[in-house]
Amino acid sequence: MINLSLLDNQPINFHYIPEGADIEYYPNYFSELESSLLYKYLLNNIKWQQDKIRIFGKEINLPRLTAWYGDPDKIYTYSGIKMNPMPWTTELNKIKEKIEQKSDVIFNSVLLNLYRNGNDHHSWHADDEPELGKNITIGSVNFGESRDFRLKHKIKKDLEKINIHLEQGSFLLMKPPTQLNWLHSVPKRKKVFNQRINLTFRYITN
Question: Total structural domains in the chain?
Answer without folding.
Answer: 1
